[in-house]
Amino acid sequence: MAKIALVTETYPPEVNGVAMTLHRLVEGVLQRGHSVQLVRPRQYPGDMAVVHPGYSEILVPGLPIPGYDQMRFGLPARRSLRQAWSGQRPDIVHVATEGPLGWSAVTAARELGLPISSGFHTNFDAYSRHYRLGWLKGPIGRYLRYLHNRTDVTLVPTSALQEQLRRQGYRNVAVVSRGVDTRLFNPARRSAELRSRWGASPDDLVVCYVGRLAAEKNLDLVLQAVAAIHKARAKARMVFVGEGPQLKALVRQYPQYCFAGLRRGADLAEHYASADLFLFPSLTETFGNVTAEALASGLAVVAYNCAGAADLIENGRNGLLAAPGHSRGFIDAAVALASDDRQRTQIRHRAAPSVAQLDWESIHDRFIAALIRCIDGNEGGSASPQALGSAVGHCAESGEPLK
Q1: CA-to-CA distance for 100 and 97, rounded, in angstroms?
Q2: How many Cα atoms sit within 13 Å of 286 on the Cβ side?
Q3: How confident is the model at residue 196 (pLDDT cuts 50, 70, 90)?
């Protein structure tokens, strides 16, 4: 069985797509009998490292991320990581985030000759323009490319992102998609009682947005689309699920909308399934887990033709896509689905079956297969594909794309 060191600046109980994805991957790796050493920032005073058979944590100092008070970035820890990995050498180091902690982990692993994989989860260079830091887009982009090219393979969630990064000079980019828990997110979670609390009758349209309430999510376009929808469906209700720096301003400016705050687990799934139309106009995603969750919940989704939506949505069949950045097209698509009950119903019926194949079990196998290839292709690696488990050996050796 393999020993995997996973380095990340974010992890539950923090709530975001990257933290959720990594937690799922860790669970899948552990269930397959491998061991995980998680390296993360200390999240709060008194935070203690968890240690049990097959799983351990190394906690490092961290600082709050500006604008994301509930999240932290890890401070450099090259010396301590080198010391820890010299004493107990992992078979591979997977660096999931690109902050100071991630950089120092790549440096320590390279100094020790360890195989290194990395994950590209967040478009930090795209985020910069939403925080009046557009002048940093170029330097951040160069930093990310250099960091990932110091690793043996960079894992991305979509083929479109793979091609984009290749054009930008990234080397050895492989696709491992993200999964969705269809047992949790499904149309059966729909609640008439919850809809009633939103002030919606069975025949009223409920429009929903789930995600961080922040500038990089392009929420102004959600608001424009909802205003246009109200001209066609005066009784339509708008529900925002999530928290973020724009929450207070939105509550103050739009008291007529429902702000449900942060929701988790079955409660979150019920909020998804109890809506009818899901709007997601973000252009900064590498995947967008909420798109898969909304589809699994049986919602009609309107999104831009990029990131995960480009892979998951067949335009006109299980959702509607607008050309990236084409605001008018996004608004028109939202109004079209809001106005056409027949089309919206047909799309909703096709939504959940369209993502049924994204079960986490297959994603876990593909993730481990990617690590196998990295270890097997690195002369410094001490583990073979057989050591990682024959259950995924066929996938790793078959030549099938890791999608």
Answers
A1: 9
A2: 23
A3: very high
Cross-strand bridge partners of residue 206: 237
Q: Give the Cα separation of 375 and 396 in Å (integer).
A: 11
Instruction: Please state the domain count of the chain.
Output: 2
H or E segment and range at residue 175: strand 173-175
Sign, CA torsion 179/142/117/97: negative
C-alpha span between 32 and 52 (Å, rounded): 16
pLDDT tens across 101-120, in order?
999 999 999 999 999 999 99
Q: Report how far residue 286's alpha carbon sits from residue 125's, in angstroms, rounded to the nearest whole number.
A: 12
- Its domain, for residue 287, covers 187-354
Does residue 16 lie in a domain region?
Answer: yes
What is the pTM assigned to this prediction? 0.77
β-partners of residue 238 are: 207
**Same domain, yes or no: 245 and 297:** yes
Pairwise CA distance, residues 180 & 182, whole Å = 6
List own/partner pairs for 41-47 with CB under 8 A and 24 or more apart: 41/9, 41/72, 41/73, 41/74, 41/75, 41/101, 42/72, 43/11, 43/13, 43/14, 43/72
